[in-house]
Amino acid sequence: MNEPPSRQRSLGMLRRMDVHPDSLAFAEALFERYRNDPDAVPAAWADYFGALEREAPADAPAAGDCIDERDLQLERLQVRVLQYINAYRFLGHFAAHLDPLGRHLPETPPELTRAYHELDRVDPAQTFDPGSLHGPSPARLDEIEDILRDTYCACIGAEFMHLTSTGEKRWLQQRLESARGHFGFDPDTQKAILERVTAAEGLERYLHHRYVGQKRFSLEGAESLIPLLNALVQRGGARGVKEIVLGMAHRGRLNVLVNVFGKSPRELADEFEGRPSRNRGTGDVKYHLGYSSDVQTPGGAVHLALAFNPSHLEIVTPVVEGSVRARQVRLRDRQGQKVMPVVIHGDAAFAGQGVVMETLNMAQTRGFSTKGTVHIVVNNQIGFTTSTLKDVRSTHYATDVAKMVSAPIMHVNGDDPEAVVFVTQIALDYRMRFAKDVVIDLVCYRRQGHNEADEPAATQPMMYRIIRELPTTRERYARRLIEQGVIAEDVPQQLQERYRDSLESGQSVVPGLLPPDEADAHKPTNWGPFANQSWDQDIETGVPREQLSSLLDRLNRLPEGFVVHPRVRRILEARNAMAAGEQPLDWGTAETLAYATLLMDGYRVRMSGQDSSRGTFFHRHAVLHDQETGRSIVPLRQLDPDEPRFLVIDSLLSEEAVLAFEYGYATAAPNALVLWEAQFGDFANGAQVVIDQFISSGEQKWGRLCGLVLLLPHGYEGQGPEHSSARPERFLQLCAQENMQVCVPTTPAQVFHLLRRQLVRPYRKPLVVMTPKSLLRHKLAVSDLNELASGQFQPVIDDIDRPEPAAVRRVILTAGRIYYDLLGEKRDAGHDDVAVLRVEQCYPFPDAFLTRLLGRYDQASEFVWVQDEPENQGYLGFMEPRLNTLLAVRGQRLHAVARPAAAAPAVGYPEVHKSQQQELLRRSFGPITARDTPRPTE
Q: Where is this region: Disordered (predicted)?
């Protein structure tokens, strides 16, 4: 087929360029793709080919024809100009003026010079097609250079050419290049920016003089953060955002609370002066506290929520994402246009803490996406006392990790508030348009030390010599507006005095702050019904047998032609028999029925974990897969297909970020059963910060209620030290003040009632469940359907064989898997004088239940705690003093049988494990020895 003349001419010009013969075929193939779809090739090639087509005159020779040498030279220059433009887009940020301290002077890469592109001898009058560069076309080379330098080498350094989407790159180019570093703010906007910078500086000065030497982790040096956040809120509201959830560490937090969220200076003064806050718990330092408020914007009221955060810096990042996801679900905000996450990072933490990467990795995943986060890096150019680049990170920028998710990064000089507000507008609009993460790198400095009692010059003398002589951001910007004639000379002083008067009055200093009674009717979920509730509530959690059978029947139905794996088919067939009452229920069936009944009651159920849809131990099968087509179905979602309220996610290989996400979700969704399942219980070790700082203590520190459930497979079954223990001793050590529940259910009925209890009663505390492995299929670990139809969770279970109390001489108390070993040994050896009791709830400690059951065996003379775990681990350290308190009334003491104290949770050799297991059973029923004598108590 004959090629069109225009294509022939373009191909001819392409072949006459100085392209290596080996690369010509590649270039021609790209050109063919470009002709079909300009967006299908990289932006640089699209510009190149576009220019070729525009430059090829109608009478230009076709491929293979002769061409004038002068025309050929112009064509080569045209290509080099396009390459020169592209170099600025890729590398211009290296030459940008980003450092307010002037310590890191811009270094112009050779690719940003004319000589590098052989353009240093170009005729000044010669014009070129600038391709996609926004500006005059055609344009002289000096005009092109002016646009590029103003756009990419002034106070903004934009990194976006690593993005994989040509459309996103084109959009960012248009926004940046059309402005050319001149942001077009009107005088009213400029005055508003100055007012916000004045507020940022004014609060720090006020606190510095009023509370000398007290820690506040000031914002001085990064005051542009306040107009940045104000722009986000106002522009976000105008774009339809109804809620913004903000996470940040302690640097600048007090300033954000007062100048963005509207916390009253009077309330902040109370905290500085040591008066207790409204939280009735143990409390926390003022720069960890959260807050919420409503602010009026051009698009209506926006609800602002600042997440509570410990000093573990970046751990709040996934917590914010989880909270946002829950709010988006509540508002049916599937596109993320109503609820937006904003996270403020420190530069050293953003580069240094692995949870940042874990959270970024969740950004576009099905179960964790929040449709884009605005990340703000307050880049003080120092981490505590570390500022030498070779010590603080291995990347050029602190933000380089964000490139893993193709997030655009806007580096901006923090001493140019207008540039800061401009990139904020771009960032917000990008997030709203493309539903992806975006990063603002606010390059600034820290005027004080790490805290106000610190002396930074001791470790950074040269840096702080510059800072001491540096005018503040407010001073610089005020002088600039005066020189531009925007404000009079006396306006900056008036703004300072007016702001200080507002602080002295104790009233809020945020314009547009709405009083509670005028706030928008759209509000987060009310936690009031769950406050001040007692755990000891007699709640029936049974469900009528007919309903259970019907649900199980519905869950087992498969679409016509749907082919499941043979092993899964056998499980479904067994569940059909269970529904008919022909065989007892196993663990997976009872658990599934718990979720199904909660869904039918109108609750939501959300579960995540690395193997949660199938279950690590092949027991759950919440998602079924067609073996012929690969199609998947989720039976629990089909109970209400119009409004499915069940979600199960096989999560990414992360514990810390995923568990923190689920914690954040649970704090914003009191009417959802939110579960995180560890692949093995010890995997929770990788999320210990979340457990210590949020799950166990969030209520006491911050008054945050949370009903999150942790499912942690636990059991000593010869799988070695890494896959035996979920470390119950760690959770029990953290238990106090009725802060959470630690349970060890051993029957399907128990887990059914336990999970239902979590939502049916008006009580929201974290629930840590030591779940089984081998018991999932143990012939004795089954329940009758009637046990689910009535009753409730039993914190303690009496001996299943119901021995005659007067004949019992020894009472064994235990928890978890080993119960079935003890039961088997008792029956096989005919130990009719031994009663075996199961403690199914370790905390809150079931003293009333235990007192009642132990009272049945008032003739017994020996009481023994038996556990799988070593004696320095497991439940013993927690249970022993509490059981001794109960036994002391009858003059008894507890004896203990456990594996020897060990550094690792379990042995790694199967034969050693079996030997230990046999020894445990022998000692449990044998004579009490010195080894079993209880340790002295204080």
A: 917-938
Q: Do domains 187-508 and 797-932 have the same CATH topology?
A: yes
Structure tokens at 39: 């967006």
Domain boundaries, the chain: 5-106+131-155, 187-508, 545-786, 797-932
The alpha carbon dihedral of 846, 847, 849, 850 has a sign of: positive
Residue 65: predicted pLDDT: 53
H or E segment and range at residue 157 = strand 156-159
Comparing CA positions, the residue from 518, 520, 517, 503 lying closest to residue 264 is 503
Considering only CA atoms, which of 724, 738, 743, 740 is closest in space to residue 685?
724
Catalogue the long-range contacts made by 512-518 (C-beta closer than 8 Å, 24 or more residues apart): 512/295, 512/296, 512/297, 513/262, 513/293, 513/294, 513/295, 513/296, 514/293, 514/294, 514/295, 514/296, 514/301, 516/294
Side chain identity at 547, as an amino acid letter?
Q
Is the separation of the CB atoms in 813 and 864 below 8 Å?
yes
d(CA 306, CA 231): 17
CA dihedral 592, 596, 601, 604 (to 10 degrees): 80
Q: Which amino acid is at 864?
A: V
Alpha helix segments (H runs only) across 337-415:
347-352, 354-361, 389-392
10 Å CB burial of residue 591 (0-12, 13-18, 19+) is buried
Mean pLDDT by 10 residues, the chain (938 residues): 56 55 62 75 75 61 59 88 95 95 88 94 93 93 96 96 95 95 93 96 89 79 96 97 93 91 86 67 70 93 91 90 96 95 94 93 96 96 77 90 97 97 98 97 88 78 88 95 96 95 90 76 73 80 95 93 94 92 94 96 95 91 93 92 89 94 96 95 92 92 93 93 94 95 97 96 95 93 94 95 94 96 95 96 96 94 96 96 94 94 94 94 90 56
CA 877 to chain centre: 34
Class of domain 545-786: alpha beta
Residue burial 159-195, b: 16+ Cβ < 10 Å; e: rest: bbbebeebebbebbbebbbebbbebebeeeebbbbbb
Sequence length of the chain is: 938
Distance between CA atoms of 493 and 498, rounded to whole angstroms? 9
pTM for the full predicted model = 0.91
Sheet holding 796-797, edge to edge: 796-797, 834-839, 810-814, 862-870, 894-899
Cα–Cα distance, 713 to 756 (Å, whole number):
19
Q: Where are the alpha helices (DSSP H) in 286-381?
A: 316-330, 347-352, 354-361
Quick one: tokens of 152? 């990419």
CATH number of 797-932: 3.40.50.11610
Beta strand 709-713 pairing with 672-677: parallel
What is the reported pLDDT for 312? Answer: 79
- Fold designation for 187-508: Rossmann fold (3.40.50)
Q: At which residue do the structure tokens 């307050």 appear?
A: 378
In this structure, the dihedral spanned by the alpha carbons of residues 677, 681, 682 and 684, taken in order and rounded to 10 degrees, is 30
Q: CA 483 to CA 474: how far, in whole Å?
A: 14
* pLDDT of res. 938: 41
For residue 317, give both structure tokens: 């990042």
Residue 48 backbone phi and psi in degrees, to 5: -60, -50
Q: Is the peptide bond before 5 cis (omega within 30 degrees of 0)?
A: no
- What element of type H or E holds 259? helix 253-259
Do 410 and 381 meet the contact criterion of CB atoms below 8 Å apart?
no
